[in-house]
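Mods, move this if it's the wrong board.
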Amino acid sequence: MVAMTQDRETTYRKFGPILLEALCLVILHHVNLLRAEQGLPQISEQDIIDELNNHLSQLAPYEWMKEMENFPP
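Not the wrong board. Structure tokens:
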């Protein structure tokens, strides 16, 4: 089990993007199950990607990102 006292940067650097992608897909699946129960349309993976990009553009990069060559803005 991961200690909850680790900071944001250390935690996400350790687990990396594949864990985050899997988490998004799991959440999307469960949200769509709940939406179906309510008679609402599903949310697509592209909807999630668009929302993530909207929020990512508002967050400051980690310090280590600033040091990496060719890291996307």
